[in-house]
Hints:
This protein has helices spanning 7-18, 50-53, 62-72, 87-96, 109-125, 145-150, 154-157, 175-181, 205-218, 269-272, 288-303, 306-327, 350-358, 381-396; strands spanning 29-33, 36-39, 44-47, 102-106, 132-136, 167-170, 186-191, 194-195, 201-202, 221-225, 249-252, 263-267, 331-337, 340-345, 361-362, 364-366, 370-373. It folds into two domains: 7-57 and 305-396, Alpha-Beta Complex (Aspartate Aminotransferase, domain 1); 63-303, Type I PLP-dependent aspartate aminotransferase-like (Major domain) (Aspartate Aminotransferase, domain 2). The protein has a seven-stranded mixed beta sheet, sandwiched between helices. Strands 1-2-3-15 form a four-stranded mixed beta sheet. The protein has a four-stranded antiparallel beta sheet with strand order 13-14-17-16, covered by helices on one side. Strand 2 (36-39) and strand 3 (44-47) form a beta hairpin. By secondary structure, the chain is an alpha/beta fold. The protein has 14 helices and 17 strands. The longest helix has 22 residues, at 306-327.
Amino acid sequence: MNDTPSATESIAALYKRYVMSTYAQSLALVRGKGTRVWDAEGREYLDFLAGIAVTAVGHCHPRLQKAIRKQAGTLIHASNLYYNEVQPRLAQALAERSLGGACFFGNSGAEANEGLIKLARLWGSQNGGRWRVVTMLNSFHGRTLATLTATGQTKVQKGFEPLPDGFDYATFNDVESVRAKITDRTAAVLVEAVQGEGGVVPATPEFLRGVRTLCNEKGILMLMDEIQTGLGRTGRWFAWQNYGVEPDAFSLAKGLGGGYPIGAVVAAPGLASTFQPGNHGSTFGGTPLACAAALAVIETIDAENLLENAAARGAQFKEGLEKIAKRHPFMTAVRGIGLMVGLVLDRPSKPFEAALRERGLLAIATGENVVRFLPPLTVTAGQVRKALRIIRATAAAG
């Protein structure tokens, strides 16, 4: 009998001893290439999770590797007390693809949403003493105290009371519910184009357009959380571009750095000037290294036509899932946009996620009964077909 622990068991033991138990890991991943990853035992998986929508251009993309190596040998960090030559180039790339304004850079999605909320409050204080923000039930905006309070899910707030004041919750895809929550103290409405953590629920065009009209009518800001949907995941640079609306500002993170941590607030010209020196800051936000990585991601999306690929492969994947669902009544719906797809079940989704993993496909259970798929934008037609074969076999096995 061999009592020697496996590589995964050894890694798990170190985690148990030295890392706070805030996650429930299942694998020890040690290597990635493109849309594939390998665990500590050498088993290969097709990655349709992409680090939760982070590795937008796949694992270890040559262009991203080259950019990081070059910048790491030039200048990694100097602080925002000084200019660096990379940060404004990234800000320009984002502004030119969106609102034409300016950017603030942080390190994560939660920090980006914190910045978005602070920007709204500062603007509101200058415009009639407004400070409250309307967010949506079933939304998700982060794990800091402000962003978990902005999140319309009590399960992430439990135990952290008293929560910061200033947030009111409306019903997603219901404009009249949003209208009912707006008062003379409301500064902004914050909304996702697709509720990712809430079960991959897209906004209807009527809803987002209605919110934009309502914000114009009330003279308040429309803010959008593009943490998960931004940088091509829905087949456009930003999900709001699918709807024919423009927010006043939006947040970015996840796919922006392709795996290197970076977050951003992108604001339209008039609103962008609200922040002045001393209003907000970040020690690590917008370092040359982080910005070089993000620029490489944007350049790769352009060079490899990944917006078009996301739209095409997303349509292929959804069509294939819908065909499988027709044969298996426990699969009740398929929804999403581009390469952000949810498979809705009539039962808890975690066992199905685990069964997919056992067959070599990584996805993630979200909500209570949805399996979420977020493959890299580089995913090929052949890899989509392989994923569908695994899902079909898993469904047939019950």
